[in-house]
Structures are given as structure tokens and as C-alpha cells.
Amino acid sequence: xxxxxxxxxxxxxxxxxDRLLREASKREGIxxxxxxxxxxxxxxxxxxxxxxxxxxxxxLTQREVREILSEDFRDLDARK
Length: 80
Known about the structure:
Elements: H1 15-28, H2 32-44, E1 53-55, E2 58-60, H3 62-70
Antiparallel strand pairs: 1-2
């Protein structure tokens, strides 16, 4: 689990959301806070910056990786 030195925030839930969160917490056997953190990670995962692909000294963008993988690597002499 991650370090819990984060900041606190208040979330106001409807009675139905509160009931469902308590029920899910009991069924999963984890705290309501952990369920909320997991939900936040799920929702925000698309916004996480990812590093460029690196192979030793070579840095490639995703587009460059796709181009390389789509190339035909057969022997050029065999094409003649």
C-alpha cells in the first residue's frame, strides 16, 4: 500500500452512495477509504503521464515504435 502522507478531503455522499459504499467495503473486506482511493485511481489512470519507451540509449515515441513494428524485416536481397 502507498504511503498515507497524503491530504484529507471531504466527499459528500447521497444516502444511496453511502449505503452502497458500506456494503462494498464489507463484501470486499477493505476500508471505505481504500475503495474510494481505488475508484480515484481507476478514474484518473488515463491522465497519468507515461515515459517514452527506452531501449538503452535509444528513445522512441509510441508512433516510432508502431512504425518499426509494422516494417517488413525480410532480407532485402531476397526481394529481387
